[in-house]
Amino acid sequence: MGDYSKTFEFYENALKIREKALSSNHSDLAAFYNSIGQVYTNIGEYSKALEFYERSHKILEKVLPSNHPHLASSYNNISQVYNHTGDYSKALEFGEKSLAIFQKTLPPTHPQIKTLIENIEYIDDCIDTWSTRMTSASDFQRLHNALSTNLTKISNNVMDLEKLVQKLGTPEDSEPLRERYHRLENETKILMQQTHDALEKLYNTRVTEVDQRRKKTLTDNLPKQYLATLNRFQKAQSIGAQKEKESLDRARAISFRQHKILDSPFADDFVSIPYDQLQKQAVLPIEQEIDTRALREREEQLRELETNIVEVNELYKDLAKLIHEQGIVIDSIGEYIINTEVNITNGNQDLKEAEADQ
After folding, report:
1. Quick one: fold of 152-357?
2. 41, CA 20 to 30 Å: which among 211, 248, 276, 283?
3. Which residues in the chain are classed under CATH 1.25.40.10?
4. Which residues belong to any copy of the T-SNARE coiled-coil homology domain (predicted)?
């Protein structure tokens, strides 16, 4: 494979400089992400290659028209990664998207179109073969590849969530930021559930005795990766819920005090933050002049987040059972579940207090 350590060190340093100097949607940053993806593809690190190809693609989707050739090339890069990992349905999906753009922007006889058609025909053949001659070993490999891809996506989502959570309750806080946080949090929770279901299917997939050792080698590390990511996600949920609760309390207190009916010495009986304490806290623009409808929407968002936290805790419990059944030793699994339950208890109490304040 050659010595890529210096290459990656160069890319890491160069990436830090570019991410500081360029806007998050700059086309040069997309090109650099794509270059890193190509290096990972060359050495067979397909999960990392997919991570950087997708980062590049997200930027291109925002800054280029939908029929731009660069976007077609990006679709093709992603298709090739899925092809290498054996996820042929995904490879076909992105390959066809690439071909559709090139057919609109290039002459019919262009070599690029011919190459793409040949690639798609090859993928179609692979899918046909899988449909008629699927073996337990190939089925296992497909599930394993899908899980690895999911874990990469979840890890990226959690990193984005952690960045958004850091901004909650700060001067950078805003309605669009909260909408992104809630949307990404919910999408990640769904992806977590899908990954959990796939993990169960993976362990229930039978393989031959010859492939049993290979199965054990491939699966031993997956629950640990999943657990670590699940734990980070739960922490982001918990911190986000606490920050939103505190912000909602401040917004409610301000809203109530803006009504003359509460402009009395007894106003503190109606809100969870006394007036003297409220004066000492930094009130954000997003918490000022908020109407009753907006307050209810935020309360509903907080309830939905609390529900998602409960569901994630159930995933912890199911994962603990699965790990025990597979004989995998992870000392901290019980501690993770206990911490989660404590956070949920606090969250439920917070929500009851919020309802009592209404």
Report:
1. Methane Monooxygenase Hydroxylase; Chain G, domain 1 (1.20.58)
2. 211
3. 5-135
4. 292-354
Q: CA-CA distances (angstroms) from residue 79 to 28, 53, 141, 253?
A: 22, 10, 18, 52
CA distance 27 to 183: 25
Contact 116, 102 (CB under 8 A): yes
Dist. CA 256–CA 261, nearest whole Å: 9
Phi-psi sector, 208: left (phi>0), alpha (psi -120 to 50), beta: beta
CB count within 10 Å of CB 357 equals 16
One-letter amino acid of 328: I
CB neighbour burial string for 17-43, b if at least 16 within 10 angstroms, e if fewer: eeeeeeeeeebebbebbbebbebbbee
Compute CA 320 distance to the chain's CA centroid, rounded to the nearest angstrom: 22
Question: Residues with Cβ < 8 Å from 303, sequence gap 6 or more?
Answer: 351
Fold classification of 5-135 (topology level): 1.25.40
Please state, in angstroms and rounded to a whole number, the distance separating the CA atoms of residues 119 and 48.
22
Looking at residue 49, the DSSP 8-state letter turns out to be H
Q: Give the integer Cα–Cα distance in Å for 324 and 162.
A: 30
CB atoms within 10 A of CB 125: 11
Task: Please give the structure tokens belonging to residue 100.
Answer: 């559709």
Q: pLDDT per position in the chain (358 positions), as tens?
A: 445 566 777 877 888 888 888 888 898 999 989 998 888 888 777 888 898 999 999 999 999 998 899 999 999 999 988 887 777 778 888 988 888 898 888 887 888 888 888 877 777 665 554 444 445 556 677 777 778 778 888 888 888 889 998 988 888 878 888 888 888 888 888 888 888 888 888 777 776 665 666 667 667 677 777 888 888 888 888 888 888 888 777 777 766 655 544 444 444 444 444 544 544 445 445 555 556 676 777 778 888 888 888 888 888 788 777 776 766 655 554 444 434 443 444 444 443 443 444 4
Predicted TM-score of the model (pTM): 0.48
Encoding tokens for residue 179? 């909408």
Computed over its alpha carbons, how large is the radius of gyration of the chain? 25
